[in-house]
Amino acid sequence: MVRLDRLVNVLGGYGLRLLRCPVPRSTELRSVVLYEQTAGRVLVGDVLLAVGACSVEEAVRWASIVRAAVVLVRDDVAPAASPLGMEPPDDEHHVAVIVVDPGVSWSEVAAVVYGLVLEGRETESGRGPTDLFALADSLAEAIGGAVTIEDRLARVLAYSRLQQHADRARAETILERQVPEPLRAVFAARGVSTHLESSDEPLFVAEDPDHGLAGRMVVAVRAGRELLGSVWVTCPQPLDGARRRALTDGARTVSLHLLRSRASADLERQVETDLVMQLLEGTADAAMVVSRLGLPQGPMHVIASRAHIAQQERHAALLLSFDRATTGFGWSRPGRSAVADNTLYTVLPGDDVAAARSWITSLQAALPTHLTLLAGISAPATPEDLPAARQEADECLALHETRPSSSVPPAYEESWDDILLQRLRAAARSARAPVRGPVTELRRHDAEHGTQYLATLRAWLQAQGDPSEAGRQLGVHENTIRYRLRKMTELTALNLQDGNKRFAMMIEVAAFDDPRPATATDIIG
């Protein structure tokens, strides 16, 4: 069930504000009503939309009659200020009061509230948002032109089957699922974006044969003062009369659909996030949580990822990647995701690392091209072991952050040795690196005299004491290796005969000196 606190937080994003709250914000809300009588009885519910109330007092009285815990009332009938938690004199009704901004219609408020309170139970059982494609078909029939519905980022949400006056630009937009960049530049140059931000009136965009663009009308889809998207209709001439009215009315209907869809998606994501974090933090009922998430019992990977957009606030990229990872209704997605701190975590069923990398590739493809995505993949784990898998995914992500962004996301089964060395390097950055000893002294001598003693020692250790193999690695004769080893033993106490000391030197060289560049096998595709 949705709690009052959740309703207040979501409605705050639409300009509504909590006037006072004498009831616990943990109060559960299960139904929404208007103040009306049906068949001689008053309907009761938890949330009252006080449409027509002339004052806050009247709205609160109505709420008491219908036994509501919260009432929404118009801003113009509410007092300018009222301390939260305080009741007016002689008011014995314990009802939370939320005031509605004049710029937001009751229809829009109803769409959000009904979506949150009622659709939450349905999204978890597989119900999706209202069918925008059916709405696009209806609009196309009424207007007589092909219709496309887009969000505010010019991504295609739905389009009509009717192809009347359709052009190449529309086909490319639908195929790419968003308006192509050259076409967006044309619209920006013609002031389309500026118009949509500031006006609710339809705008005619003239043809542009160079971009395969026939004429079309566009109108903003808005909720109060917030731009949600746009509706486009292909037409050779500007629309007028009944067809123009059908377009503007259709945009208002689309806004209600988008609001309900957003509310449903928002609630679904909240439920999903809570359950995923239970798994990643550890729970005694892991199998039950997996079942509630709609995932099969069995092994699964944890994928940790971070997205970055140059010169933008870091949370913008994180939220965009979370939005893409959780897009879809009816639990049809292969994984379940949650955001914690600055990381997106995804629990993905199966034990195939190739499938996990494929999922990361698909997420990257759904994001803007200028966004960088880094990721790490845990070893397969049972539901009970997902907290440990989360740590593995975090360490693989940290490893990816030290490599080129185009490299293959590291998987724990393949990269555990690199992760171990990464831990040791982290210790070195914490001032735990040795400051004395043979390896440190050779490193210092190389820096001061331009010698290659440390590289020689590394090659000799990796070759397990074979001068010929070490020489091959460095491209020098084996006698050069022997000569350098003699000189190194003169410079420092380099005991190459002691197995423990050789082992310690291998660890120090590997952990604190990593000369390896990214290889061809590290690069995607």
Automatic annotation (TrEMBL):
The record's annotation in Gene3D superfamilies points to: PucR C-terminal helix-turn-helix domain
Residue ranges of every copy of the CdaR GGDEF-like domain listed in the record: 291-398
Q: Which domain of life is it from?
A: Bacteria
- Domain PucR C-terminal helix-turn-helix spans what residues? 453-509
User: What family does this belong to?
Assistant: Belongs to the CdaR family.
- The identity of this protein, by name, is PucR family transcriptional regulator
Give the organism the record lists: Allokutzneria oryzae
